[in-house]
Amino acid sequence: MVGVGGTLGDKALISVNGAPAKVVSVGGQIDGVRVIDVRGDHVTVEVEGQRRTLSVGPGAAFATRPSPPDGGKKAEGRGSLVLTADARGQFSAQVEINGVGAPFLVDTGASVVTLPSSLAKRANIDLERATAITISTANGRARAYRVVLNTVKLGVLGANLVEAIVVEDAKLPFALLGMSFLNRMDMHREGDSLTLLQRY
User: What is the domain extent for residue 36?
Assistant: First the structure.
């Protein structure tokens, strides 16, 4: 698990698997994690040939390969990801929708992936052909649209043709990674860690 404790210029404070954090400059590496870029509060790292951008704070992690339960061969093609809860006990992650990245809140209580309309627009989702529905949100009833996402990617985890709904930004301040994506994963929570293992 990789954590970014802070940034300063082209340097980032990086912690790997709970070890004490160390300052790493762009181009440098620590325990197999190479720092590729530092921009404000966002740090791009490369792990096992995969690049991803992490935000400062505990709510991000890098993808790993699962340890097989029998201690034998690794499961081919089955990537895993470990997320760390923030101070409120919530899990957040950078997710790509149709190739467009955005921060998401992992929500097992949401039946489907739920997007604010601004993200749907950036991801080139056609709402004119979508089915309009009315839903209840924490901010009241809202008009929404049923859509199917071509691709959803979370690190090395991915799924095609994922059911989702799109809601006005005013009614949905952040995107939710719901069960239409998560039900394709095996999920295991232990303390502040949530492990996702791709099933199909």
Answer: 1-57
